[in-house]
Amino acid sequence: MAGKAKVVLTDYVWESLDVEKKTLGSLADLVALQTKKPEEFIAEAADCDALLNTYAGPITADVMAKMPKCKIIARYGIGVDTIDLEAATAAGIIVTNNPTYCVEEVADHSMAMVLACARKIAFYDRQVRAGHWTVPPGKPMFRLGACTMGLVGYGNIARQVAVRAAAFGMRVIYSDPFVKDGQFDTPGKKVELNDLLKESDFISVHAPLMPQTRKMFNDQMFGLMKPTSFIINCSRGPLIDTDALVRALDAKKIAGCALDTTDPEPLPNPHPLRDRENVIINPHAAWYSEQAMVGLQAGAPNEVRRALSGEWPINVVNKAVKGKSRAGL
Which domain range does residue 223 map to? Predict the structure, then answer.
């Protein structure tokens, strides 16, 4: 152990750690755990030089204070809502994410959800399996090319959804306070959020999860949507107030929803969203493909390797830490 860094992996969802071991090589010793909460990994991480993180959290200021040597927290995924970025910056800890490994997959999945809702694919499949062979129960259905796609957030994934929606002839609009109209060479017109809610036939949610966006889809927002509209969420479950969604469905304020991620996750069984014909639920699978898995597993350990080798990592989320990090970068 002498002279080598210590890297703790809080949790992982793949079979082999060969990528991590090869990436870190002789630079560090890897301690791999399968935990869900900080109290389960902190004893091992107390003297770590770096933390690799998938889902375990939240990683708060108190947790960071118990890791005085930690130079970097590297997330395997895109979101960093479980990590206190301000506390990390104050502590001199670099936080990185992996923003591009599954852009195509999530965009494809979002569009697949739109198509499944529009063409009642899951509904008809269940009907046939139950012994029914008839079209009328799926009515009404509308031509996709006559529909409007509303994107809440216009980041990397949302812009790829825009390309796919436009290919089906859909009108594309988006709402994003951080993006100017015409900033990107992709389909879509910027509109105010309330206008997007009123005009869209399909709303695909791609906002980052922050205190300001948690449960942003509430009773008021559902009340502005068309009664024929669908909401698609392949982003973060807590962006939608689950109880408000149930109320909107009960009151027929919207036509249905397709969720790859929920709040809580997984949904308990029984739950009011389960067993509804106008609800599609997937087990947070939108990110996955064999190619995405390669990118997922390689991203975080490579960032750790860079930081421990004296290089500035590529995908630093808390850029304000530069010049005052524990890694001396």
Answer: 103-281
Which residue in the list 199, 265, 271, 276 is annotated as catalytic?
Answer: 265
In whole angstroms, what is the distance from residue 35 CA to residue 18 CA? Answer: 20
CB atoms within 10 A of CB 235: 27
pLDDT at 2 over 90: no
pLDDT beyond 80 at 1: no
Given a contact cutoff of 8 angstroms between Cβ atoms, the answer to whether 216 and 239 are in contact is: yes
Residue 185 lies in a domain: yes
Q: In the chain, how many domains are there? A: 2
User: Could you say which of 214, 271, 284, 326 is catalytic?
Assistant: 284
Q: Is 15 a catalytic residue?
A: no
Instruction: Say if residue 87's pLDDT is above 80.
Output: yes
Q: What's 211's DSSP letter?
A: T
In a domain, 328, yes or no: no
Query: Per the domain annotation, does 151 fall within a domain?
Result: yes
Per the omega criterion (within 30 degrees of 0), is the bond before 264 cis?
yes
Q: Are residues 19 and 164 in the same domain?
A: no
**206 belongs to the catalytic site:** no
Whether 157 and 103 have beta carbons less than 8 Å apart is answered as: yes
Which of 75, 164, 206, 236 is flagged as catalytic? 236
In the chain, % helix, strand, coil (3-state, to 5) comes to 35, 15, 45
The reply to whether 114 and 193 lie within a common domain is yes
Total residue count of the chain as it appears in this document: 329
Concerning whether 105 is annotated as a catalytic residue, the answer is: no
Place of tokens 């100017």: 180
d(CA 295, CA 304) in angstroms, rounded, equals 15
One-letter amino acid identity for 172? Answer: V
- Give the rounded percent of residues in the chain with a pLDDT score beyond 90: 99
